[in-house]
Amino acid sequence: MKKIILISMATASLLLAVDDRPLTTHTELSLVDAAGNTESTSFAFEFKADKNFGKHEWRAESNAYYGSEDGDSTKNRWLIEINYDYMLSEKLSFNYLTGYKSDKFSGFDSQFYTGPGVGYKWIETAQHKLSVQGNILYSIDEIENVSGSDDYFAIGTGLNYEWQILENLKFKQDLKYRGDLEDMDKYFVDSKTAFESKISDMFSMGISYAINYANVPADDKVSTDRTLLASLIIDY
């Protein structure tokens, strides 16, 4: 957990050093600590950074989820993704994506993926924003209790939608897909649906529902992992 926070801070510092234009960041924090008949703790952290300079755009995203009950860890997942976009036109861009995911309880010790693609800003208005992305990825999966690694070429797609419903209320939908090009039954889907309500210029309260799906899960694992969170959000 500390590792992902340090990586996020280092990434933000790097982006800030590239140019003196403002850096936009989005941070979400959620903590639940229950005591009594059951001792349980859950923590969630999400960080996003976005920086533009000329035709270049850097986007960094990281998140971490941790949970324990009666001293036993029940959730331990973190991810970091970095996107580089070179704008070919006002809407179309060349994209390069690199990502790394670790999920102790999914049966996958780690998942790494990287590769080129294209991005397109489909809608860009004050009320609605919709962007899509597609990449050809080289992927490496390290599977629990399996020697060696599974490497393959994959197709990755992403969708990001924002709807400014009211001045202080926003709806967000993020959707990602990554699938093996040779085995179409092997794919992963990540979805996050969220509502955010502004309480000041910098702070918001949010509620989100995330789904992480593996169509072919590791042995003795279920396909779907769900997370419902209420979070404090900091935008600056």
Overall shape: globular
Radius of gyration of CA atoms, rounded to a whole number: 18 Å
Helix content: under 10%
Number of strands: 12
Note the gap between the termini.
22 Å
Sheet with the most strands: spatial strand order: 1-2-3-4-5-6-7-8-9-10-11-12
Low-confidence stretches: 1-19
What sequence of helices (H) and strands (E) makes up the elements? Answer: HEEEEEEEEEEEE
Beta-strand percentage range: over 45%
Largest sheet: 12 strands, antiparallel, barrel
Which structural class do the helices and strands define? mainly beta
Mean residue pLDDT? 87
Number of helices: 1
Brief descriptors of the model:
single chain, 236 residues, mainly beta, twelve-stranded antiparallel beta barrel, 1 helix, 12 strands, 70% strand, globular
Notes on the protein architecture:
This protein is mainly beta. The protein has one helix and twelve strands. The protein has a twelve-stranded antiparallel barrel with strand order 1-2-3-4-5-6-7-8-9-10-11-12. A hairpin with a 4-residue loop joins strand 10 (187-198) and strand 11. The two termini are 22 Å apart. Residues 1-19 have low confidence and may be disordered.
